[in-house]
Design goal:
The chain has 18 helices and 29 strands. It is globular, with a radius of gyration of 23 Å. It starts with 6 loop residues before the first helix and ends with a helix. It has 634 residues and is α+β, with helices and mostly antiparallel strands. The chain has one domain (177-633): Rossmann fold, CATH 3.40.50. Helices cover 28% and strands 20% of the residues.
């Protein structure tokens, strides 16, 4: 366990979460796959040994002080060395781990400057011996192979208070990008979508290319439409364009740098030349795969398009547990970026059940997120694209199932020290293949039940199996308690009753805790529905401007780009957003001078759009200029 954690609240949470289960109830990596036997013991692998931080309660308190105007520590962010000295592992603890590494015949590759991780290389046989386990090869249902420990790792007693996590012996890819295509995407050349064939925008559309501030047809929106809708343009008029800011992208896929410049050129947007740097972590992520480079391309294009003169550093790593941890740890330890977004994740309940990792993995990530916050790095994650039912995107399920899918939140967005991005649908009129038209008249929480209703009402077709539960991820964490900044916010929810995750293939029928006061997500939202979505360029996905793409994958990098503008307008890093934005909403509410727009319509299949906060759109969408004024004046 982490040192100086709020032990009572965490212990109570774990007791509530696990109920009759124990951590030993689940074999390491219990997802369904065929065991092919022991891995080649001579195979070389790289492993990250994560060390526990110190004085976590004091660290969290200091983070809050850095974003509290009037506090003597306001904006007195730490350097990586200062963080390591105050909160990282001690020299004695590091020496003990290094002695263990040497004793086992392993090779130290790197001690990260934050003193939270040591990267080590060795053979599978050496790691089997060091942690008293047996790494096996497995074949997944799609035919791909990977390796992971067949039994839980055993940490030497001398290191039990220091070594939090051993990450890297599981090579199974299990994180997913939160990117969604429209229901029936059309070829790029047609610029039309079957559902939204007769879509019209309000106000009337103008040509989409050649003018980044033009209003485009839904499904072809650009960063110019984001600037128009969320009041970014006054910042541009004041000369705020991201100059002097550095945007960070954490991702699990490589990308073609030229695609970003093609996108900006195609929409007529002038940007800083030679602004993109790539950093391959653990050898880097693939250029193709289930999500391909399209996710990374859109992350760069959206964030860099909203802040056209900011620099961009892309940290990309393999889609493994070690890769996901290391990409954050490297970016934060480097401390070169002012803001950092990620558009990958998976249901947090999978960690609790140890299907893909374990609770210690969430804790290890949490340490890095705390470091980011105290260094002033503003972080954004996505809330997911499966509405209030995050496990549906992994395991499927319908409300009519004998055991309906449970209400679940996505990780790492559920972590309380990240600003989490949800999604909306903006007003538009749509039809299906010249059929009856229907309209969404106000910006709404994104949920594709409006499509299901359209097909049922107009065509008599039950379309639920095609669209459930696509929409803005949102809900209540079953692990992280309600953070301080949400405790005084109206609309914050507790977990619901009678929520069960049933996975017969794994022998799991797990009832989630009811009435748990957990962290609510998302925090903020912007348009994410692919039916009212965006164009982007990804040469690995297809030629030219691809259209009708969406998902909260677009929103996190858009907020990242806006954060770069705010960094310039406030003359320094803005730090962790949540303790700053929630009081603004609580005190000043909504209106023409508010930093937020209230979303009072729509739903994400469970949580309705209502006045104030809801776990569908959070505290609402952003008025970027008003937020910049609040951060500059108050």
């Amino acid at each position: 366990m982490l040192k100086n954690l709020h032990r009572k609240s965490l212990a109570a949470s774990l007791a509530l979460l696990l109920g009759g289960f124990t951590m030993a109830s689940f074999a390491a990596g219990a997802s369904s796959a065929a065991d092919l036997g022991a891995s080649n013991t001579n195979q070389k692998v790289n492993v990250t040994l994560v060390l526990g931080l110190h004085n976590q309660a004091a660290l969290e308190s200091y983070i809050y002080s850095t974003v509290t105007q009037g506090n003597p520590s306001y904006h007195r962010f730490l350097t990586t060395d200062q963080f390591a000295d105050r909160y990282g592992a001690t020299a004695d603890e590091i020496s003990k781990v290094q002695a263990f590494i040497k004793q086992q015949g392993l090779t130290q590759v790197q001690l990260l400057p934050n003193h939270l991780a040591i990267q080590v290389s060795g053979t599978i046989g050496q790691f089997n011996k060091a942690f008293q386990t047996s790494v096996h090869d497995y074949r997944a249902s799609d035919g791909s192979t990977f390796h992971r420990p067949s039994t839980a790792l055993t940490v030497p007693a001398a290191l039990s208070g220091t070594l939090v996590l051993t990450s890297g012996l599981n090579s199974e890819p299990h994180f997913r990008s939160h990117r969604v295509s429209a229901l029936e995407p059309a070829p790029a050349s047609s610029h039309a979508n079957a559902l939204a064939k007769s879509a019209t925008a309000a106000p009337a559309t103008t040509p989409c290319t050649g003018n980044p501030t033009a209003t485009c047809t839904p499904g072809e929106f650009t960063v110019g439409d984001v600037a128009n809708r969320y009041n970014v343009n006054p910042l541009y008029k004041a000369g705020i364009n991201g100059k002097g800011s550095t945007i960070g992208i954490a991702t699990l896929a490589d990308f073609v740098v030229a695609d970003a410049y093609t996108y900006w050129s195609d929409i007529g947007l002038a940007v800083k030349p030679n602004r993109i740097t790539k950093f391959a972590v653990d050898g880097g992520g693939p250029l193709s795969g289930p999500d391909g480079s399209g996710e990374t391309s859109l992350d760069v294009e959206q964030s860099g398009g909203l802040a056209p003169w900011a620099d961009i550093v892309v940290y990309h790593a393999p889609n493994t547990d070690a890769g996901f941890f290391d990409v954050f740890n490297q970016a934060v330890s480097d401390n070169k970026v002012d803001s950092l977004s990620v558009s990958w994740g998976e249901p947090e309940v999978l960690y609790i059940l140890q299907l893909d990792a374990n609770v210690a993995y969430m804790q290890a990530l949490h340490q890095v997120f705390l470091e980011a916050a105290v260094q002033g790095i503003t972080m954004f994650a996505t809330s997911g694209d499966s509405g209030a039912f995050d496990t549906v995107s992994f395991f499927g399920g319908l409300p009519s199932d004998p055991v309906p899918p449970p209400l679940t939140a996505d990780s790492p967005g559920a972590d309380p020290f990240i600003t989490t991005a949800g999604g909306t649908t903006v007003p538009f009129t749509y039809s299906f293949r010249s059929g009856p038209t229907a309209s969404i008249t106000k910006e709404s929480v994104w949920g594709w039940d409006y499509i299901a209703n359209y097909f049922q009402t107009n065509l008599g077709i039950n379309f639920l199996y095609r669209v459930f539960s696509t929409g803005s991820g949102g809900g209540v964490s079953v692990f992280w308690p309600t953070p301080l900044y949400q405790q005084f916010t109206s609309g914050i929810r507790k977990t619901e009753k009678n929520q069960t995750l049933s996975l017969p293939d794994n022998g799991i029928n797990y009832t989630l805790p009811a009435n748990f006061r957990g962290r609510n997500v998302p925090d903020l939202s912007l348009n994410a529905d692919p039916e009212t979505g965006y164009s982007f360029v990804s040469s690995t996905d297809g030629p030219g401007l691809l259209t009708f793409e969406g998902g909260t994958s677009f929103v996190a990098p858009q907020l990242n780009g806006i954060a770069a503008l705010l960094r310039q307008s406030t003359h320094g890093r803005t730090g962790f957003w949540n303790p700053q934005i929630y009081p603004l909403q609580n005190i000043f509410g909504y209106g023409p001078f508010s930093a937020f727009n209230d979303i009072k319509a729509g739903d994400n299949w469970f949580y309705q759009g209502v006045t104030g906060y809801e776990p569908g759109a959070g505290i609402g969408t952003l008025n970027a200029t008003n937020l910049a004024l609040f951060l500059s004046v108050f």
